[in-house]
Amino acid sequence: MKLSKMTKKIDELDEFYAEVEGNNLYIRQKGDGDYLVRFNLRSNDLYEGGYIDGTILAQHLNDGALEALEIIRKYLDERENQQRYILPLGVDRDGDTNYLGINPNGLNVSYGNNPSVHTQEELDAAKKQFPAIANLIEEIKEPK
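User: That's the sequence. What structure does it adopt?
Assistant: Structure tokens below.
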């Protein structure tokens, strides 16, 4: 499930809507905009860097709060099962492998044992964002 599909499903709920701000997804109440869930989109763990408001959850158990959490869980499960890729650039003179890292704010180069890992969805978005390196991404990507 893509992020856009997940947010659309949440928007269809009576009491909640989804909003992406930076690296975070917020599930907000339609009435006052308070958020039920804050979720770090770079994480595969709902609780890592995230927050679930217990008061709002208790108030809306029958009004879609659990359904919203289930939609997020399904999104995470599908995302976790996606193939992951690394983008090796080569080896430097010290013998460390250098990797290309892509994020919404730009590109970076990392080295050593901690390469940036990307899903195909993230690579496709990067090819649109950085068309000059679209062919390079396809040429160097390797399954993690």
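The first strand starts at residue 16 and ends at 21.
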